Amino acid sequence: MPENEPNGVLLVDKGEDMTSHDVVAVARRCLNTKKIGHCGTLDPMATGMLILVVGSGTKIQDLLMAEEKEYVGSMKLGITTNSQDREGQVVEQKPVPEFTREEIIAAFDSFRGDFYQLPPMVSAIKIDGVPLYKLARKGQEVEREPRFVRVFDSEVTRIELPDVDFRVVCSKGFYVRTYAHDIGQKLGCGAHLSALRRTRSGHFKLLPGKFATFDDLKQGRREAVLAAMYSLYDVSKLRGA
């Protein structure tokens, strides 16, 4: 492997309206290497931490992907969409009762600990090799396998009906938009995810000087991007290994 070949873990603060694949593609050009993967997809509307594994860092991709994630988000009560977020088509609208803070917290608390979550139709999960979102675009609804997930911690941070802000710490494979949808169903008025930001993944946080932006990658600021990268030794120390 060439000496100047980058190796390690790069945190990117992803902006809105781009896919995780877009970020990887731009990172490959910036760092001039094909060997880059990511640890957990973020939907186009979601912002925040996307972990890229670069070069020999790809060897620990599964390890990093398995760690818990923390998100801050917002949901809008009273409107249900087919994608369970603001980018989908509205399928149902209901009036939002004057819920008390206690009623909303109780709905959140019913989705704590271990439970099964039914993945949304608009997702990248494949059935017989076809991503669900492609079937959803054709108006098809197919049977999905519920996923075992865990919510380690959650907190309601703001209530200004019909909007509710929250923080959630969850296991891998967790759909925050499904979480918002299910809480809306629990409250009886429906809901969809209106904003989402990933703030932590495992031991990684977006600390000053230790992450890159999409603009850094797009503008080819290679030295700045390399300076922000964690070496495999750094990652080992951070994880207490």
User: pLDDT under 50 segments (min length 5)?
Assistant: none
Largest sheet: 10 strands, mixed
- Total helices: the number is 8
Rg calculated over all Cα atoms: 19 Å
Helicity level: 25-40%
Structural class: alpha+beta
Tally of strands: 14
Q: How much of the residues is beta strand, in percent?
A: 25-35%
- Helices and strands, in N-to-C order? EHEEHEEEHEEEHEEHEEEHHH
Q: Measure the end-to-end span.
A: 25 Å
Query: Which whole number gives the mean pLDDT?
Result: 91
Shape: elongated
Task: Give me a quick take on this structure.
The chain is 26% helix and 33% strand.
Would you write up a description of this structure?
- It contains 8 helices and 14 strands.
- α3 (101-109) crosses α5.
- A hairpin with a 2-residue loop joins β12 (191-201) and β13.
- By secondary structure, it is of the alpha+beta class.
- Helices cover 26% and strands 33% of the residues.
- Strands 1, 2, 3, 4, 7, 10, 11, 12, 13 and 14 form a 10-stranded mixed β-sheet that branches.
Distinctive features:
8 helices, 10-stranded mixed beta sheet, 26% helix, 241 residues, two-stranded antiparallel sheet
How is this fold's topology laid out?
Elements: E1 8-14, H1 20-31, E2 36-38, E3 47-54, H2 61-65, E4 69-77, E5 79-81, E6 90-93, H3 101-109, E7 113-117, E8 126-127, E9 130-131, H4 132-137, E10 147-160, E11 163-170, H5 176-187, E12 191-201, E13 204-205, E14 212-213, H6 214-218, H7 222-228, H8 232-238
Parallel strand pairs: 1-14, 3-12
Antiparallel strand pairs: 1-3, 2-3, 4-11, 4-12, 5-6, 7-10, 8-9, 10-11, 12-13
Helix pairs in contact: 3-5
